[in-house]
Design goal:
- The structure holds 2 protein chains of 2 kinds.
- By secondary structure, chain A is α+β, with helices and mostly antiparallel strands.
- Chain A folds into 2 domains: 183 residues, no CATH class; 83 residues, Alpha-Beta Plaits (2-Layer Sandwich).
- In chain A, 65% of the residues lie in helices and 7% in strands.
- Chain A contains 10 helices and 4 strands, in the order H-E-H-E-H-H-E-H-E-H-H-H-H-H.
- Chain A has a 4-stranded antiparallel sheet with strand order 2-3-1-4.
- By secondary structure, chain B is of the alpha/beta class.
- Chain B has a single domain, classed as P-loop containing nucleotide triphosphate hydrolases (Rossmann fold, 3-Layer(aba) Sandwich).
- Helices cover 35% and strands 26% of the residues of chain B.
- Chain B has 7 helices and 10 strands.
- In chain B, the strands form 2 sheets. Chain B has a 6-stranded mixed sheet, with helices on both faces.
- In chain B, strand 4 and strand 5 form a beta hairpin.
- In chain B, helix 3 packs across helix 4.
- The chains are: A alpha+beta, B alpha/beta.
- Chains A and B meet through helix 7 and helix 10 of A and helix 2, helix 3, helix 4 and helix 6 of B.
Chain lengths: 325, 219
Amino acid sequence: MNNQAPDRHLPAIMQPEVPKKRRFSPGKAPIVPPGSVTGRSLVWVIAIMGFLSCLTAGAVYMINDSAAAWLRNVATEVTVQVNPEGTPQQVEQRSQDIVNFLTGQIGVRNVELLTLQQSAELVEPWLGQVTAVQDLPFPRLIAVEIDRDNPPDIKTLRAVLTNKFPSAMLDDHRTWQQQIRRVTGSLALGGIVVIVLMAAATIGIIVSAARSAIASNRDIVEVLNFVGADERFIARQFELHFLKLGIKAGIVGAIGAAAVFLLLPVMTEYLSGAATHAEIRRLIGSGRLDLLGYFSLLVVVAAIAGICLITSRFGVRGILNAQNQ
Amino acid sequence: MIRLENLGLRYGLGQEVLRDVSFHLLPGSFHFLTGSSGAGKTSLLKILFMSLKPTRGLAYIFGKNVTRASAEQRAGLRRRVGIVFQDFRLLDHMTTWENVALPLRVHGKRQSEYAEDVTELLKWVGLGERMHAYPPVLSGGEKQRAAIARAVIGKPELLLADEPTGNVDPQMARRLLRLFIELNRLGTSVIIATHDYQLLTQFPAPRLILEHGRLHIHG
């Protein structure tokens, strides 16, 4: 190497290094043009995936929320059934005795003997309106409210009660609670399976899109190779576009799903009668997502963006690696 | 710097394009690579640039056997090499300035570090007024100068140029040759593939002559 004295007629890169002043810089275009990587149709496909995933996540959240509310209510109450053996007066007297017995027990907050009419209303959804209640052998029902902070030992209470009043049966709704848990668990699992399938489909779409993005930007990839860019640098030029695509499409999908959840109560009321609406409310609660529910939609958006980023990173690097072999 | 031993290259099942090519180039050397059209100049440059693997023989670039180098190692070696292609290979969606700055951007430098150098180099190669123009509107000569500027902006240890003066007038050809010579004086090894006789006579450098796939060294 022959070092020369500074020459004013040569470019600066050939001059000895001197501190530089900042000057106007002419801008920095993206190395890979965004339009050549993620077209509008791809944005819409991923947005639809995001929309369906958000709907599923929101629905699972809503059903779980409603089930948790049912279980909370059910857990604070046990029911005592009194067999209708003997005359109505005898049954009434026995029921009152049980009420008196339960009222004094530790951990019992309130005891209420339901009237025959109230019992009839409970079976109304199955039997319809029963006018001759007195003639039917309805068991008398006693609703026992449990002190949640100091609950009684249900096993002991049941044993003492049945010992003292053989015609009484205490039901803590455990079987029903288990069924609800099983049903909501199955629904949640179904929802997760749907979301996993959609994530798998999204991964497939992104891998395919990455492949065509590299093919359509072959010249750029070649030039980047020539100027010494490694696979990581080249992959980064593509993955940034896919990350933006994921965020944009995820947000569009989440906004669509949020709009559905906002309009759901109005839609169910409009599309179904008042009675059906009441049934739906029993199943899915108010039909509205709470703040945590909307947060779950944001988690879906983040997951879609993450899938787009990671899939494109590994997809592009895998393709480049195969090309360089 | 570069050592080739019994290097051979054939495309598919065709005849060998390069046969038993052997030479050793020292750091800071300057060579012209000549030969008739189709003699294999571009193929040899591609091997030196690691974009083509020889079918036989050994090729050491910067002491590394490139026939066995991984993609990452090849990328690392390419950062030390500047190349000017016959077909320029400029990116159409980037301005001339951005094209020239690309190697530095890829090397992870900040724009503030190189902005002035890029602008000045572009002015020096006569593209000061065209630095914001996109390649599709540049003439062949302008594209060539932009491609040369891109190859030299990173002060490579090895410069490979394939017909770098093919599309410029004699005055600009002399100016570009001077750029290569000055770069060489600063330590860059230079190989210029050309059959521009005028260029060959302007600088007394050894010539690598390719004839029927075989290499002869003159000077």
